[in-house]
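Lab channel / #folding
Pinned by the channel admin:
"Please post every new chain as: sequence first, then the structure tokens as a reply. Keep commentary short and put observations after the output so the thread stays searchable."

First post following the new format, from NK:
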Amino acid sequence: MNALKASFEECDTAYGSLTDATATQMIKTRRGERSKLGALVGNTIHDNEEYGYMSVYLRLKGVVPPSSEAR
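Reply from TO:
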């Protein structure tokens, strides 16, 4: 849980520091150079894909994914 909390804090810092002026700044990533905005969009896409995979495994185990629970 500590690692998960730390990862959320790291992402919150990255998203919170993005401004119109910094969005197009280029940074080095494992996939080469990307804009800061591009890197964060890629992170969001990756998170959505992983949640999709996770929801399948949860359903196979008889667990309702959090986004599908009744409100």
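NK: The radius of gyration is 16 Å.
TO: also worth noting, The mean pLDDT is 93.
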